[in-house]
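P.,

For your records, the input lines for the assembly:
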Amino acid sequence: MNALQMLQKINAMAEFNRWCGIEVTVAEVGAVEIQMPWRAEVGQYSGFLHAGLIGTLIDTACGFAAATVAGPHLLASNFSVNCLRPAQGQTFIARARVVKPGKTQIFTSCDLFAVDAGQEKFVANGQTLLAVLQAPQ
Amino acid sequence: MNALQMLQKINAMAEFNRWCGIEVTVAEVGAVEIQMPWRAEVGQYSGFLHAGLIGTLIDTACGFAAATVAGPHLLASNFSVNCLRPAQGQTFIARARVVKPGKTQIFTSCDLFAVDAGQEKFVANGQTLLAVLQAPQ
Amino acid sequence: MNALQMLQKINAMAEFNRWCGIEVTVAEVGAVEIQMPWRAEVGQYSGFLHAGLIGTLIDTACGFAAATVAGPHLLASNFSVNCLRPAQGQTFIARARVVKPGKTQIFTSCDLFAVDAGQEKFVANGQTLLAVLQAPQ
Amino acid sequence: MNALQMLQKINAMAEFNRWCGIEVTVAEVGAVEIQMPWRAEVGQYSGFLHAGLIGTLIDTACGFAAATVAGPHLLASNFSVNCLRPAQGQTFIARARVVKPGKTQIFTSCDLFAVDAGQEKFVANGQTLLAVLQAPQ
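Structure tokens returned:
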């Protein structure tokens, strides 16, 4: 099972990821891409992507990037999100990478793009610090 | 229309808040409480509340707290979330308050509790920095 | 050696803390207070306390609060600072507390006050996530 | 006066920057580099660069990057720092860039390197969100 298959399997196990329609589209060691389609249920009060879902995509992509170097036994300790522009589009693409892997914690970073009429627009960025859990023995 | 009614109206306008089942339960000047029930669709891969929804509750409660002092024309610029413990419970309660109101930006803070078997457990905290938008003229 | 004595000893070992004139004034399990006097060398371009020193006080107080529950073998992984108001005063007081202790990481929080003409003004807040290092064996 | 000269002038007006020995070495629209030499007074208790000075370099470089697009009337609202590795070296180099400029707020990002025996090591990164002040009239 390669990194992409491992992440697609983890992604399928998370009920909320399935509801969101998140798909893992790229995975290599230390870097991943995920995508999510727009639909009305993911909107905030003025019809843009809800900030909570901006956070969801950034946290999820960062966690998957970390899993490519440390396996799936990880929990986010802290994540931080910058909302740069109103997030509006037909599809959202989050690209995350590992900034610094470690034995007990992994630093990651992510950029989020909204695809509108075929054009990518940079709408948010963020970071996640993940704790590496001890694998069950 | 008092603060609670204003927030309940804004909350009802956000499709994602409705899907989440978020309810505004307390609102006074500078402080609010919101609640969300657990259901399987909000879970991550091991059955806890998805970090994206932890962020959703913190960002939403912070935005509502800010709206009690500055009205609804606000956008989150940055939010940051600490996942202190696995978030597991029948209900989640976010309590947010305004730390510092300003003309162009508002600093807020939030604690998140999971209610499990009638007991509140402190599972996450966070903060949101909101930009005050110019009201349409 | 009690908590206050332990922290005063660590504080005295850090050259930069000595240059700043930082003193540990209160220490109990999970909570500390430190103080630093104003002088011209700590100013930014318009004569307020430099944001880097706001961060220094918050990071230092958070680290000391964590040390009261986990001992001194700690390193800050991430710290975040909100500059709420221009930091101007004769003395600066940082009060930090442990939000959540853990075996491998400790979440802390801090408020910073400027004392001006005998009055405390709340000028900044922040948080630090510390990693617990393995003690040398 | 070009961007580099403007920043060198601002840098010289900040007493703490002068004490630190910070120099502005590169400035173009949206991107800057600053440097600071190691000396014993900038150390924490085990002799690495104090986290407060890691924050100082990141906040300062981010503020200078923002000033290249918005002029000097700026204040940091929030800054966040990741300490990736112990910061040890003869010189520290912070490289910052504007992620998203705006009328009222500017998002910036920074990487910090320690130069040890002629080799750059990536030791920290961070971000600063700056508020654009109304120029005095």
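Two observations worth noting. Chain B touches chain A at residues 10, 13-17, 19, 40-45, 50-53, 55-57, 59-60, 63, 72, 75-83, 86 (CB under 8 Å). The mean pLDDT of chain B is 95.

Regards
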